[in-house]
């Protein structure tokens, strides 16, 4: 009996594509592949521009680079297993690979929230204290913020992922998605998972929700400052520097709320809807962020025009 338990517990997990639509997996993979390629090209181009263009060597664009790197990380973490399941029907994944993937997926989600908070801090300083902007947000300060955001996320997720290695897995080894998520894996554990159920809730409230509240409060203060500017043109100019960031915040938090509502209150919703919402959560923000900044930020537009050797309009 113990040896049989060991065999069951060490069996690889099985990833799942779109149940009931297996025959259409190749067709479903096409829009996903296009989205992945667009994300890689869009965020990769942003990173190249920020590194190559000296006009973009400012704190605002350094934080944008962190956002693009985070989005690339999420994409590169999920893409291999998703395409492997949809193209090759290769569903098996070892415990170590699964837990590592779950760690990076959840860590990068919190990193994204932290980077959006850092970008809000950047806009807050730029508008509330413009004369001291460059002395407050030095390159060293930006690096420290970036390291802090990554360490906060990495250390906060580590306890629940480490515990996954200790659990025996004696139930079905079939996961609900084509990538590993902590909440999926713990459902298969034959052990007391109370800590792994409660701790993520604490992390979400202590970090993601708190990040949003601080961002919201910072924009209240920014709006108060902008309304105190006498010139209408100067007001519009100040607010315009925040539009791209606000759009990215909405894209990220709306998808988070949408996914949360589907999981919490969509008990009667078809399972394929849950799976689709998960893909929306992991693909929509990384796809939209480069688009938003390319459309709304003149410096990025100018950099793209220079990159592709197109004449840049001065109007």
TrEMBL record:
Assigned GO CC terms: membrane; plasma membrane
Membrane topology: Multi-pass membrane protein
Xref: Gene3D superfamilies: Rhodopsin 7-helix transmembrane proteins
Residue spans crossing the bilayer: 28-49, 61-83, 103-121, 142-162, 198-222, 243-266, 272-292
One GO MF term attached to the UniProt entry: G protein-coupled receptor activity
Main location: membrane
InterPro entries in the cross-refs: GPCR_Rhodpsn (IPR000276), GPCR_Rhodpsn_7TM (IPR017452), Olfact_rcpt (IPR000725), OR51/52/56-like (IPR050402)
SUPFAM superfamilies found in the cross-reference section: Family A G protein-coupled receptor-like
CDD domains assigned to the protein according to its UniProt record, in alphabetical order: 7tmA_OR51-like
Residues in G-protein coupled receptors family 1 profile domain copies: 42-293
Transmembrane helix keyword on record: yes
Any one of the GO BP annotations: cellular response to lipid
Keywords: Cell membrane, G-protein coupled receptor, Membrane, Olfaction, Receptor, Sensory transduction, Transducer, Transmembrane, Transmembrane helix
Subcellular location: Cell membrane; Membrane
Similarity remark: Belongs to the G-protein coupled receptor 1 family.
Classification via PANTHER family: OLFACTORY RECEPTOR 51B6, OLFACTORY RECEPTOR 56B1-RELATED
Name under which the protein is recorded: Olfactory receptor
Organism: Mus musculus
